[in-house]
Amino acid sequence: MAEYLIAPSILSADFARLGEEVDNVLAAGADIVHFDVMDNHYVPNLTIGPMVCSALRKHGVTAPIDVHLMVDPVDRLIVDFAEAGASFITFHPDASTHVDRSLQMIRDAGCKSGLVFNPHMSLDALKYVMDKVDMILLMSVNPGFGGQSFIPATLDKLLEARALIDESGFDIRLEIDGGVSPKNIAEIAAAGADTFVAGSAIFNQPDYAAVIQQMRSELAT
Ligand code: DX5
Ligand code: ZN
């Protein structure tokens, strides 16, 4: 995969025209589609499930779909999302009683696996499962809503996660989610992130290609 991936979060897209929105943002240069699943239990909001993922595949979306599960429990949705066409499935370790098993279930279902860490959470849960993750996702806002401000303490955690990945020698992507924009993407990349979720920064602008291009030129500096 490319060094840097831009992953628009469809949470901020127009759900009444979702297929078209995803087509447009991919045509505008996005690499992967970030798909936020909220259950009104783990987080105080309710969004979309496997049927919508599968509808995007039927619509013709071939780009990787990065499913971010903000649900508790986790396990019973894994196979459903794999069958619906998910590429990555990430979940919050505090939402699964048996994290190792959930990670294994994701890989057994043919998807890439990942753990997500809320702003206050240490990375301790990674210690014994580094060989079972393909992605580490750091939340730079409290999960549940788009349009919040980036929490600066996440930069230190990115440095820590980058060091863990480099020491492990495994091929693991480091994703950041929340409050990412062309203004802060360069310092986020400098702290070690390689995969950038951006919802409101992209979908709240009329010209998706211009924002994505701005992000890429910030990454190139
Ligand atoms: C928040 C979601 C994010 C959200 C990011 O819980 O996980 O993916 O859409 O939105 P922005 O980029 O607007 O902060
Ligand atoms: Zn997300």
UniProtKB/TrEMBL annotation:
Q: What pathway is it annotated to? A: Carbohydrate degradation
Comment on bound cofactor? Binds 1 divalent metal cation per subunit.
- Alphabetized UniProt keyword annotations: Carbohydrate metabolism, Cobalt, Isomerase, Manganese, Metal-binding, Zinc
Query: What are the catalytic residues?
Result: 36, 177
Q: Which InterPro entries match?
A: Aldolase_TIM, Ribul_P_3_epim, Ribul_P_3_epim-like, RibuloseP-bd_barrel
- Single Gene Ontology MF annotation: metal ion binding
Protein's job: Catalyzes the reversible epimerization of D-ribulose 5-phosphate to D-xylulose 5-phosphate.
What the entry lists under HAMAP family is as follows: RPE
UniProt-recorded name of the protein? Ribulose-phosphate 3-epimerase
Give the gene name.
rpe
